[in-house]
Design goal:
Rossmann fold, seven-stranded parallel sheet, alpha/beta, six-stranded parallel sheet, 16% strand, single chain
């Protein structure tokens, strides 16, 4: 009934949805969701217009960008300082726009701090506009305070969870929750096979190919990439036949990565716009922890995950916040066991990364065990059609205006 009411007014009054996210991963998830929103709107006869904070993927999917936030994001205290002013300016401009042009619905994707601000603004200034949180902050794993969970639920009319444990957590806290599954399940439907990916990149079948995925945030160029590339240098010494492939998350990082490749003397190829092909073609991925871990697992490629932040951030998290998550990489979080090695902060040394990488490459039993754990993980991520289910849930939240 609600969809029919919305559809009835569609020709004269386009439905306007505002989607808010940031960073490379948010842009990827936002792009997949926007494509699904347009598909479902077409089926319902809804004339849809989408405005967004995001990046190129969301723009390519059909959103009108109010600002590009794909390169704005950080993890940590000192790491966030360079982005405070730009985030404040974007938020100020977007809130003014929303006040003058109220949307019919707001969708927030991850991007915890900025989206809390957007959500509170909508609650206070646009109380009749429904809100949906899709891919909510991972309070279900590492909540530092119940206050953050309450703040998320306060600004959210409907929460769309991507993990079963996430859905259970927010439901227990009183949220209006639906579990839709993980959107990368859909992305895998068009992923190339190993053979196809190697043909795309001109990699010989017998070539030992290692993917290095150092950065989707600027801070990772400084704290993650050097130790990762030092490990690659050591691996290269042990396996002279190996070649490294480095997908660019953002073109702006190319120069820094090229300089690092030269500095460490790596036999490496930097690839723009084909990150999934690089992952699919690899015999092993050495990657920063994050969404890429899950995509690599779904592509059935063995991996080593690592991460580093500023030493003060690490000290503050450990000693003041008492931050002790069970795991940080999505594959391990889904299973709540160590499917892939996680090397964090003081454990993320070139020697440790090299040791883990060589063991995985040269030990067939370990590779097979990891691939078996990937299969268990896949069973917990939901059926294909995640993005369309999410889009259906979002469109059902639209409220026809009184008298229409």
């Amino acid at each position: 009934m609600r969809s029919e009411a919305v559809s009835a007014r569609a020709p004269a009054h386009p439905i306007r949805i505002f989607v808010s996210t940031g960073e490379v991963s948010g842009d990827l998830q936002g792009g997949l969701l926007i494509e699904a929103l347009y598909r479902q709107a077409t089926l319902l006869g809804i004339n849809l217009e989408i405005l967004a904070l995001g990046g190129d993927r969301m723009a390519e999917a059909g959103a009108q960008l109010l600002a590009d936030t794909s390169a704005i994001g950080s993890i940590g205290l000192l790491e966030s300082l360079p982005y405070i002013w730009s985030t404040f300016q974007i938020q100020k401009r977007v809130k003014r726009y929303l006040q003058q042009n109220p949307p019919d619905l707001v969708v927030m994707i991850d991007y915890f701090g900025p989206n809390l601000s957007i959500g509170h603004f909508v609650r206070q200034r646009l109380p009749n506009v429904p809100t949906v949180y899709y891919i909510a902050p991972q309070e279900w794993v590492w909540s530092l305070s119940p206050r953050n969970t309450r703040r998320i639920l306060h600004i959210t009319d409907r929460l769309l969870a991507i993990f079963p444990a996430e859905a259970a957590y927010y439901q227990k806290q009183g949220g209006n929750v639906a579990w839709v599954g993980h959107p990368l399940v859909d992305r895998m439907q068009t992923a190339p096979s190993r053979t196809e990916a190697r043909a795309m990149l001109n990699i010989a079948p017998e070539q030992t190919a290692i993917a290095l995925i150092p950065a989707s945030r600027r801070q990772e160029i400084k704290y993650v990439m050097p130790v990762m590339f030092e490990a690659a240098q050591q691996i290269q010494a042990e396996l002279p036949e190996a070649h490294f492939w480095i997908p660019l998350s953002l073109e702006v990082y190319r120069a820094a990565i090229e300089q690092a490749v030269q500095r460490y003397g790596l036999r490496a190829t930097i690839v723009g716009g084909q990150s999934q092909a690089v992952m699919a073609a690899a015999d092993l991925a050495i990657t920063k922890s994050g969404t890429a871990n899950l995509e690599i697992a779904l592509l059935e490629v063995p991996q080593v995950a690592m991460y580093r932040v500023h030493p003060f951030t690490a000290w503050f998290a450990e000693h003041i916040l008492k931050f002790e998550p069970p795991f940080v990489s999505p594959p391990n979080l889904v299973l709540m066991e160590a499917a892939i090695p996680e090397l964090l902060q003081r454990n993320a040394t070139a020697d440790r990364i090299t040791q883990e990488a060589l063991d995985i490459l040269l030990n067939p039993a370990r590779r097979q065990k990891m691939l078996g754990q990937y299969q268990q993980m896949r069973q917990k991520l939901g059926d294909v059609g995640v993005c369309d289910r999410a889009a259906q849930e979002i469109l059902q939240c639209l409220q026809p205006k009184a008298g229409e």
